[in-house]
Amino acid sequence: MNLAFVESPVQLLNVLEWAHTRPGARLDGVPAQPTGPAPAARMPVADLTVVVLSPTDPMSRGQLRRMAELARDEGFTVRWQEARGGTKAPLKTLRELAPMLHRAERIVIGDPFSRYVQLLLTMVGSRDLTVVDDGTATMEFVAQLARGEKLVRWHRRGRRGPRELVLAPVTFLARRRLKPSRSRQVEVFTSMPVEPPPGITVTANRFAWTRSRFGPPKITRGADLVGTSLVETGVVDPDQYVEAVAALARTHGATRYFAHRRESTDKLHRLAVETGLEIVRPDLPLELIARRGPIGRTVLSFPSTVVHTLPLALVGTGIKVAVCDIAPEWLRDTASPRAQGFLAGVTGTARDVQRLPAPA
Q1: What digits encode the pLDDT tens for the residues 133-154?
Q2: Helices and strands in the chain: count of H runs, count of E runs
Q3: For the chain, what percentages of helix, strand and coil (3-state, to nearest 5) are there?
Q4: Cβ–Cβ under 8 Å, residues 108 and 3
Q5: Do residues 50 and 71 touch, judged by C-beta distance below 8 A?
Q6: Alpha-carbon distance 271 to 195, whole Å?
Q7: What is the pLDDT of residues 168-213, one digit of tens each?
């Protein structure tokens, strides 16, 4: 049995993309054709169970419920786990999932930085592992694993509080589980440019499932702008962000702003008032929304996951994806010292996108 743990809509989307590449995957009732040699020890796709470790914020929960419906439509088993419903929820969740973990032959995870996932990894023993994309964080995860560093999200400053000290043994053991061994294969399924350490298999995510199930999209004449949570994570100054969004909208004639699921209501209200943009709260990950349409002929974004994923999801449609750099003066004092370099790397490694300078 393949057992997947997801905590976000994008993770669940990429689990479906991963499952679509496995032997026996079907495309509109027709068996999928292999595109190359299959990695060893792949499990039948029908043996996939997805466990949703539900977050608390409403927008993420809503998108996850929609993605869970799509996964069930594909024939997979989905278990919704209220993993954060009170102080006793984590222990109850771990106890309930233990039998499934012991039966699983391959574990699929979306966020190796997650403390919840790290706790689960301490229980998996020598099971094979697959890490699917949770956005650009995959780039940092693979780089840290290759350098033998501690797993720290790129936007964190690395301070170790009491909670981090208590969980340090868990993180240490999780890092060991994420390394291949004689008894454990590790695969990274990604659309990001990564250079893995020796022994880790990289499988390219080309969004074949998304393109087979959605579209071709209806294309509008104007431009659409994609939001980010860089303000909410303490990286970018909110005033600078609003000014940049307004400038991009004026320059490129954007009329809609697709909100990131983590953007605050107050910030979105301010954007609507000060820029005149229509704020859209998607009910599915943007790759599916864009593929379904209607979507602008140009999609504008700041450095984020979509500058890597949208060109793949929209290949052959004629839609242009453009990315705007983050100017150093936009960064807040609370931003990690690594922030500027990481964001520049996200932009610089994106393929098939137009580069835009930061608005003056």
Answers
A1: 988 889 888 988 888 888 887 6
A2: 12, 15
A3: 40, 20, 40
A4: yes
A5: yes
A6: 38
A7: 677 788 888 898 888 899 999 999 999 888 999 999 999 999 999 9
